[in-house]
Each structure stands twice: as C-alpha cells, then as structure tokens.
From TrEMBL, chains A, B, C, D:
It comes from the Bacteria. It comes from Tenacibaculum tangerinum. Pfam families: SSB. Plays an important role in DNA replication, recombination and repair. Binds to ssDNA and to an array of partner proteins to recruit them to their sites of action during DNA metabolism. A motif (Important for interaction with partner proteins) lies at residues 139-144. Keywords: DNA damage, DNA recombination, DNA repair, DNA replication, DNA-binding. This is Single-stranded DNA-binding protein.
Length: 144, 144, 144, 144
DNA sequence: TTTT
DNA sequence: TTTT
C-alpha cells in the first residue's frame, strides 16, 4: 500500500499574481498559474510550434507568504512537489481539477525585489536579498 | 520562448490493464491508471491515513506495446514523463483532463513474465527476460 | 548566493549491509554501497553490455537507524538526496570522495522483514509492516 | 541486473568556460565545472553559512558544441544526467573521479548571446536566439 | 484567463 | 582552480 513516489519538477513563469487565501486558525494557501513551454518542429510544415502547458500551483503557509511577498507575474521559478487531483461535483456530475502541491521552490528571477532590475543575480549584490531557495521545514527561520 | 521544465517522476502500481488504441498509419497509444499512495498521521485522531492518487498514464508506439506485453494490473513501475492537460467541451462547457505522458519507464515487478514468480529480480535469472528499463529512443532495438 | 539545485534520484540494490557509526551526543550515520546498472548494445560487437555504477550512500540519525533495521544486501531502494564531494589529503596530495547524502528513501523490497518472502508488496499484507516511505522530518513518528 | 535509475538534476553556475576535446572520427566532448550552493544557519553561531559544491559536467557531440557556443563563465543552467565515477591509477594506487554525464540541458541565462544584456528572457525578443532547451536526440535539428 |  |  506504499513504496510509491509522486514527484513533480517544474521550471516555468508565473502567468498571474499569487492569490492568497487565509483560513481561520492561521493557515494560509497561495495559488498561481505556472506556464511551461514545449517547442518542436512540425513534421508536416517544418515550422516551429510552441505548446503552452498551464499548471495550477498550490503553496501553503510560510512558503505561500514568501511567494506572495517576492513573486510577481512573469517571474521564473523552480518548483518541486506532487500531483493532486481533486474531485468535485457540478449538477451531480463528477469533475476533476489537478493541482501541483509545491513544497520546495527556488526563485530564478524576482522582479518584486525593489533594488533589482532584471535578474536574481543582480539582486544578490545589494542589501535587499530575497530568499532564492525555500526549504521544506515550515518552522525554519526565513532563509535570509 | 522556452527555458522551462515539465517533469514527472512516479513509482506506483497499475490499477488496471493497459488499454491499447491503434491509429491508421501504424501509431499506437496505450493508457492505464497508476496509483500512488500518501500516508500521514492525522493530527486529530492520531491514526494513519492513506490517500490514493490516481494518474492517467499515456504511452506511445513501441513503449506502449512493451507495456501491453509485460505489464498487468498490480505491477509496480517507475515512470518519467510530463504533465499534459487536455481541454474539451461537454454541452458547451470546458472540461479538463490531466494526463502523464510517459517517455521513460522501468519495470519494478512484472507478473506477466511466465517464468517469473514474484519479482523482476527473479525474472532476470531465466531465459524469458522482460525489459526492465525502456529508453526514450523509439528506433532502438528492444532492450533484451 | 543561491538559486541552485543539487538533486539525485537513484533506484538500485544494496551491495552490502548498512554500516553504522555512532557519534557522542546521539547522532549517527549509516553508509552502504548502492549499485545501478546501465545496459546498452555495443556498436562494434552488437552484444549487450552492462556497466555497474556504485554509489556511496550516506544516511543520518533516524533514517540511518531505519535503514539498518530493515535493509540488507540485495534489497532494492529508491533514494533521493544530494551529491557531496569531500576533499582530503594523502601524503600531501588532494583526494576526492563523492557521496550521495540521502534525505528521502522508499523501500522497494525488504528481505529483513521476517514475515516477508520476496517482495514489499507481500509484506504489506501481514502484521509486520516495515516502513516503505521515509519522510524528511526527523521528528516524525515512525511511518508504521 | 536492471530496473535501476541513476538520475541527477542540477541548477547551478558555470565556474569556468566549456573546454572542448575533439576525437578522431568526429566525436567531441565538452567539460565545465558547475557550482551549486547550500546555505544553512549554523546551530552554534547562528550565522548563515554557504557551502559550494563543484560538479564536473561532461557533455558530448552536438550538445557539447551548443554549450561551447552559447555558455560562458557565470551562466546559469539546468542539467539532467547521470553520475559516473571513473577509476584510474596513479603510482599503482586506485583513484576515483566522479563526473555528471549530462544529456539534457536548459539555459537559464546566456551571456554569450551578443544582443543580450542580462537575462535569457531578453534574448528571446531579438533575432539572435540561443537555444534554451536542448533535447536528447542528437540527430534533431538545432532548436532554433 | 495568463508567462517568456 | 572556479559561479552567483
């Protein structure tokens, strides 16, 4: 009943801002769409075709708050998590929504950093350093 | 236009047989459900809870045919691929179905091998050796 | 200063028993060799060639103790961790030893389980269930 | 004898230029060091400590040539490959050198692109587009 | 619905 | 030997 692995690794760009939802009791959840692209050459026409894949990213609690604080539309991130398909009903019919529950994230660009112009590399050379790697342990100090 | 990654790694058990579909022109597709389990301890009751996650696995052409030949319900496999959400309409309403398009697979148990009793390790010691690792290159020889 | 990833995923077989070392203060470390195989067809002779790759696995504290208790030579495991190359000197010359520091592990077969005959699947159907998935959180309860 | 996985995923920065070596017969190999960083808080002093890990990246043939053409010291890349430890002898003593044989790579920044100022995003808006994702198939067209 |  |  175990001995299984459910792991997702994504590098993509935020298609929108992080949307937060706060629960009673102090828990919180953040959601944002992440785009990955697949490019290939058409066998028929020979032209380059790009398919966009949209992933529903879900983050929780401290990681959610760090995402909301530092990430914005267009930023690039590395995400590691698991696939989770939720089931719900509409008019008595089953529907499915697949999310990526992310536990670990690394920022590959952070436009929200005020002193930063275009890349996370630049950001590390000034005093306002956003966290670039976010660990799984929720009780840790902020990685500054 | 790229610089993105969409990667899924799963280890799980087949929930059903591989269902094949053959296209005109020689292409084929195989589908099967794969179960992964997540076990955790409830904070309320302290009991162990297991959630099952079902993944819609899609394989193509030679890999599909190897899967159909060697895999059966209950077998354990390692899968590597990408997430793909297809959109379709029902009564004018958008629906989404998420699949895992698998390119690489490793068999961790293969009940269909006739000389095999319980594990793929045993299978490698006789003459009827199923492939245990299936490469991405479709034009390769079978890995026997 | 960050924004980097160092991740290793291995599925292989233990080449020897887990060797434990206990430190003063209660910490412990376990080490064992893990074999992965790469099989390919020789372009010259056309015969199948198998290369064995040996990985120096290092586990710590609770995970080390679970490994020692349940794993034995020949068992198959899934390991997730990071690469770490240690530097040392012999006769004033630098030497390097590369280890895989494993944080997450899933047992894919466990011969040490007394009620088990050949695979972890069988093991889950009786009362003596070894842990098959070991989480990163050291403070967690044992996953029974 | 199989059913194993040997997979490495790295995101890091080039510590030096790509060094090429060409073989008779047309094959080529490229090598470069890649740095990943691990940052943690010391339990003793409470200060942030960064450890650098250096990986010996090895790429072959077309991928090697693309790396040499587009990558330079300091660039950030995503690498996917396998661990390979080579054995050699010095004065009759065995020595080991661990490499990462990389088959797939994604460029996360490319300073060598002449029209590019600081990031790969900018690069995609002009006519001199470096490849950002490099597939495994050696016989493919260049991903332009 | 959307990123680069 | 080195990157950010």
């Amino acid at each position: 009943m175990a001995g299984t692995i459910n792991k997702v690794i994504l590098i993509g760009h935020l298609g929108d801002e992080v949307k937060m939802h706060y629960f009673e009791g102090g828990n919180s959840i953040g959601r944002f769409p992440l785009a990955t692209n697949e490019t290939y050459t058409s066998r028929q026409t020979g032209e380059r075709i790009t398919n966009v894949e949209w992933h529903n990213i879900v983050v929780r609690n401290k990681l959610a708050e760090i995402c909301e604080k530092y990430l914005t539309k267009g930023d690039r991130v590395y995400c590691e998590g698991r696939i989770k398909t939720r089931q719900y009903e509409v008019d008595g019919q089953k529907r499915y929504a697949t999310e990526i529950q992310v536990q670990d994230m690394t920022f590959l660009s952070t436009k929200k950093d005020p002193n930063n112009t275009s890349s996370s590399e630049a950001a590390t050379q000034n005093n306002s350093i956003p966290p670039t790697s976010i660990a799984k342990e929720e009780d840790d100090d902020l990685p500054f």
